[in-house]
Amino acid sequence: MEIKVIGADKLEKKLKDLASMEKVKNAVRLNGSELQQGAMQYAPVKTGNLKRSIRLQIRDSGMEAAVHPTADYAEYVEFGTRFMEAQPYLLPAFEVQLPIFRADLKRALED
Length: 111
What we know:
This protein has 4 helices and 2 strands, in the order ααββαα. By secondary structure, it is mostly helical. Helix 1 (8-42) runs antiparallel to helix 4. The chain has a two-stranded antiparallel ribbon with strand order 1-2. The chain has helices at 8-42, 49-53, 74-79, 90-110; strands at residues 54-59, 64-69. The two termini are 38 Å apart.
């Protein structure tokens, strides 16, 4: 009697790809969380409402992380107005997190 497995190499590749995708999703989740924390750290605090309003959403089956404030005046603080100077908190957090995310993503895809 002989048993022959056809497509084992394809199965092995698919399993490795799935494991790699899980690592990518973990990197997205981790960096999204760190971005949220960074934005909260940079957010100017008067009442704390803006800081508390910064949310993290994981979308697209874990392939996308969205960090955004829900306070209705958040954009005015980030970009300023003609009466108020900008006090950026999202962009500085993003600039710090971006190279970390790139390194984590590269590491996830190399494993």
